[in-house]
Amino acid sequence: MAKVLVFIDNPGTSLKKSSLELLTLGRALGETAVALNGKLHDDVAAAFAEYGIGTVLLPSAEDLDDFLVAPKAAYLAAAAGQAGANIVLLDNSPEGKEIAARAGIRLNAGVITDVVAVDADGTAHKSVLAGSYNTACKAGTPVSVLTVKANNVVPVPAAAPAALETVTVDVPAVSAAARITAREQKVASGRPDLTDARIVVAGGRGLDGDFGPVEELADALGAAVGASRAATDAGWISHDAQVGQTGKTVSPQLYISAGISGAIQQKAGMQTAKVIVAVNKDAESPVFEIADFGIVGDLFDVLPQATAEIKKRKG
Ligand SMILES: Cc1cc2nc3c(=O)[nH]c(=O)nc-3n(C[C@H](O)[C@H](O)[C@H](O)COP(=O)(O)OP(=O)(O)OC[C@H]3O[C@@H](n4cnc5c(N)ncnc54)[C@H](O)[C@@H]3O)c2cc1C
């Protein structure tokens, strides 16, 4: 039976859905423990127990967040060694991937990123080349480190809650780690995080600078707002919202694309969405090749109608 370690970084007072997905996946693969960085809040401890986690490892040092990722990777590798883990799971964020890579070196482990599913024997499945192919790969090393894309596992609590114990892990000293000297709070949009969101409404050059219709539809659906590179490069919306090869990779249940042509670099970031709805005034636009539902029309007519209808139905 596999021994699985899930890395969770600074959850605050509640676990993100993507963390619950990792816990559910871990449990399906074997005996699962958590390596936590940050404070273990009571509500988070209760969620761990609910998801069948018996052991939470905590770092001996409290200053891991004062540095970039190197000390976190050192801690995770030490925690994996202490827990005897042969599968380490992390989220697929840029930071998760960097921690995975650094921990992988320390553990002499194979590292697989962009994973969408894992078989019982540790074989990882990936969606590659802009979602055109699915591949299966397995690390040939005793330990494998996998970063898993959000929204590919349905979070399910354990049949019976576990009794939780905490264990301290000595964090090895890391030299030359870049220290963080200042932090600036980002203004919260009140919308879900783009990479975690179940629904994404994304806009492109067709918006001609006005993201209003996209934002209104997103808010009616409780969705995150995404964008093509043309829209972010034009400065119409922050670069954080860019979806694609050089932006974020999203895998929501529903991706609504408005005024986006569907270039290969855009597809690379969203083609694994479960359902794709495209709104474009050009019936020949390549976006319709990957859309499950297509609407040929002016987004400034279509989106407000959809928003109004959704609001009406929600009462
Ligand atoms: C190395 C590299 C990396 C890249 N990385 C990314 C990336 O990460 N993400 C990304 O998105 N792109 C990326 N690109 C850019 C990519 O090639 C495209 O240029 C870009 O995606 C185009 O954005 P767009 O679809 O919004 O604009 P366009 O291709 O100009 O398409 C606009 C679309 O809007 C439609 N439209 C116009 N007006 C309306 C209207 N009123 N109603 C409905 N439809 C309308 C048009 O018919 C058209 O299909 C990258 C390119 C390179 C070379």
What's the pLDDT, averaged over the residues?
94
Q: Which fold name is given in CATH as the topology of the largest domain?
A: Rossmann fold
The gyration radius over C-alpha positions equals: 21 Å
Query: Please, what is the CATH homologous superfamily of the largest domain?
Result: HUPs
Bound molecules: flavin-adenine dinucleotide
The amount of helix comes to 25-40%
Strand content: 25-35%
Q: Give the helix tally.
A: 9
Tell me the number of strands: 14
CATH class of the largest domain: Alpha Beta
Low-confidence stretches: none
- Any idea what the shape is? elongated
Q: Largest sheet, order of strands side by side?
A: 7-6-5-8-4-1-2-3-9
Question: If classified by CATH, what would the architecture of the largest domain be?
Answer: 3-Layer(aba) Sandwich
